[in-house]
Amino acid sequence: MAQRAPAGGRPGGARFAQFKLVLLGESAVGKSSLVLRFVKDQFDGYRESTIGAAFLTQTIALDDQTTVKFEIWDTAGQERYKSLAPMYYRNANCAVVVYDITQAASLDKAKSWVKELQRQANENIIIALAGNKLDLVTESPDKRAVSQADASAYAQEAGLLFFETSAKTAENVKELFLAIARKLPIEQAAQRGMRGAAGRPGGVDLGRREEAGTTGGQGGCNC
After folding, report:
1. β-strand pairing of 53-63 with 66-75
2. Which residue, 99, 71, 69, 72, is CA-closest to 165?
3. Positive or negative CA dihedral for 81, 203, 38, 190?
4. CA 5, CA 170: separation in Å to the nearest integer?
5. Which cellular compartments is it found in (predicted)?
6. Can you tell me the distance from the alpha carbon of 166 to that of 147, in angstroms, rounded to the nearest whole number?
7. What is the pTM of this model?
8. CATH among 3.40.50.150, 3.30.497.10, 3.30.70.2740, 3.40.50.300 for 14-194
9. Which H/E stretch holds residue 192?
């Protein structure tokens, strides 16, 4: 006799939940590179800039009984697309706000995104702060412009998860998304059989052009 699936939609007591995740941050900090590493385990040192946003999905297993699917909106960092951002973070369950640890100004921009999310997004949104391009300061410590201690202190004060990452080497990329998944209300979502992620905004031409968020530092990269 076939097992009856529980509310989460999986047999044998397994839990499945789906959540909407949005990436925010200044252009060139490496948002798309982080997503590409997480979703496809790939790194491309030269990427075209995201136009509007790109949509991707990835499923991860937290344990033998728990599976989380992320519906990921990778938003463009250019100022001209900033007005579109609320369309993507509206009803998001979680967000990754990315800055470049070799560019101090990018952390200031990240802080402004955090304030906006805390003011306008879902009140229960899980926010992670990711300091990307760790590989650059590993190779050349003098390139670091944002200290880990300062960023960590800010994240703790603001109630954020915090990781320093490298899309190029994959350092802490999976750990970042796993930490987010572990903070999400998986039990509630599974019991309700709910989609944590809202549907795609209508009328948006996403294409598949992603932001050139390279950590490779190649010349001529529009990132």
Report:
1. antiparallel
2. 99
3. positive
4. 36
5. Cell membrane
6. 15
7. 0.79
8. 3.40.50.300
9. helix 186-192
